[in-house]
Amino acid sequence: MDTQSCRPCELQCHSVHQAPATVFYIPNFITASEENYLLQQVYNSPKPKWTQLSGRRLQNWGGLPHSKGMLAEKLPVWLDNYAKKISSLGPFEGKVANHVLVNEYNPGEGIMPHEDGPLYFPTVTTITLGSQALLDFYHPIEREAEEGEVYFPQTEENRYFLSLLLEPRSLLVLQDDMYMKYLHGIRPVMEDIVTEKVANLKLCNTKLGAVLRRTTRISLTIRYVPKVLKTTILLGR
Ligand SMILES: O=C(O)CCC(=O)C(=O)O
Ligand SMILES: [Fe+2]
């Protein structure tokens, strides 16, 4: 058998066709021992690395993205290895990820629907550790109805249209409309209910109707920030 033949489809053959363009989902992208190793590294990081937000804690690695350019810092080796491994699958069009956000969610915590904004190359890759969560997708809020148009209330509930189940050890890749057009969020709930809205259900180790208790979830969102400042310019000021 030609073992090379699967190479170009490393991402392609994990495409989630039941969602708008483009979603790749790879269950068990890392092993349980890699998961434990990554969790250890996250929790061994110095305490000041954590920023407490409403509903989650986060660590920022690689520098703070900024419209004028990110003052890049080297990623620690434990993150850089995964940044390189994921980048080699091609999601950043040949560039290597240089930025990682580590999010920690306790059961009942989440993140409001949002867009990731223009500072990143429009692709996010996410490794999930510890607990599953549903990542929910929403249509953007539409402009107000003009004269003669019927006003349709834009509640969060009726803007919601699809979820992706992010299982521990999985890799998610979001691009195109799923990154740029729609909003994503995680509901602050104690359990995730697997409904027919879960677009990657066929690729998951669960079934319709399952009720999955949340434990603490860590996500590594690994991205490429194209606009980087050269350190020397700043040192010269
Ligand atoms: O934890 C996640 O998977 C999502 C995090 C997220 O949306 C973000 O950091 O922008
Ligand atoms: Fe996000």
TrEMBL record:
Belongs to the alkB family. Its cofactor is Fe(2+). The lineage of its organism: Eukaryota, Metazoa, Chordata, Craniata, Vertebrata. GO terms for molecular function: dioxygenase activity; metal ion binding. SUPFAM superfamilies: Clavaminate synthase-like. It is found in: Nucleus. InterPro entries: AlkB-like, AlkB-like_sf, ALKBH6, Oxoglu/Fe-dep_dioxygenase_dom. Pfam families: 2OG-FeII_Oxy_2. GO terms for cellular component: nucleus. Keywords: Dioxygenase, Iron, Metal-binding, Nucleus, Oxidoreductase. This is Fe2OG dioxygenase domain-containing protein. Its main location: nucleus.
